Fold:
Amino acid sequence: MGTMTQFDWPVRVYYEDTDGGGVVYHANYLKFMERARTEWLRSLGFEQTELKSQMRIMFVVRALTLQYLRPANFDDALMVATRLTRTGRSLLQFEQTIQRDDTLLTQATVEVACIDAEHFKPVTIPTPIRNAMQMTESA
Structure:
């Protein structure tokens, strides 16, 4: 597998994602980004359910900064781009964008922590996961 610097995940806007005006409700952009990070992790060979049950870890959002630039609407085909930009001992930083065709709608910086699934305390990202992630890291 070569170096992958960006992971793209398509999302279709359903009626349930929108408000009465047919515009995507602001919190749903976070859901789209969460799905993309989950699918990115899955593409590396790691299922979150197995991480919790077998490795006793979870990845949780610690902080985020998000900018809404343009609205998404009912039935739009969107692309959520995910790039890992920093890997720490227990923290990951992602840059994520949501686009419709060539139009940038939303951009975010998301900090994710690796925590112990029982005590919810930060723990070191296991080596096999860290190694797989670092192959995708971009500057």
